[in-house]
Amino acid sequence: MASHRRPKQPSHGYTSVLTATAAVTVALSAQSASADPLPDPNKKGVQAQVDRLYEQATQATEKYNGAKESAGKLQKEADNLYEEVVRKQAALNELRQQLGSAATAQYRSGGLDPSLQLLLSTDPDAYLDQASGLDRLSARQSDTLQRFLSQQRALQQQRAQAAEKFGSLQETRKELGSKKKEIQGKLAEAQRLLNTLTAEERAERVAKEERANRASERVELGNEASASGRTAAAFNAAKSRVGMPYVWGATGPGSFDCSGLTSWAFQQADVSLPRTSQAQANAGTRINSIGALKPGDLVIMRTDLSHVGFYAGNGQILHAPKPGAQVRYESMARSGMPFMWGVRI
Q: What's the rounded Cα separation, in Å, for the pair 69 and 115?
């Protein structure tokens, strides 16, 4: 017959351990089901690195803008100097021709005056050291010779200035290329990091920017007294650009960087502003308190003065914030950039 012995019952202590273990397991399962998943530290680190690279790119963009503005000015000055050199050379050639004609006439009449021989030599400046020879020339020839030597000195000086300007221009162009390379490198590195995120994580980041852009459409600006005249016209021009993309080095009308937006907007009001945020920081009356700002005032952000926008009222800034974003309204307190001062144009 088969055995029907009753199984041995577990001891009381062992039963207690099993019961406690099961209870803990159930509790942990319930907690895991109800709690949000823990954030991925790697994902958070990538997002922070991307934001930092974008910030560095915008800072480098203002330096690029400054170098580009300097290059433009130097090019214009160098071109003007070159045109002046050409004009002076033409005038000098005319005087040389007059003196040459006088020398030819004297030679045909019985010999070349020693003073003209000296003039037409390889070192005509040495003529001034022998002023006694002037009495050998007619008064008209003497005046022509003096003008020739004076203009020759002026031409040499102008050529030296032009060479210096062109040298400075070449150095500035090198700086321009270096800054452009730096910006492109940071943007490429940011894109590389973004590519390490999952499609879902990238979509979440894009959605976050889109939410910030949509929030810009519903911003409450309050009833603060606004600036008037050309400043108001510039602010209205900037408001018409909401939704345009940030592009480094861009000055509108379809894309902007931060100082590109402010300089473009004031240009629409027939006001010329410097190109960079650092220069715009000193372009008008400084306003040290946020509470004293009026809509239309410029707002200077970051300790290196590398960001600028329009104060829009109610603690909001209208600006072109960063790569991947659009021109939009944003809370100054949430922008992540410290307020330095305002500027009233």
A: 50
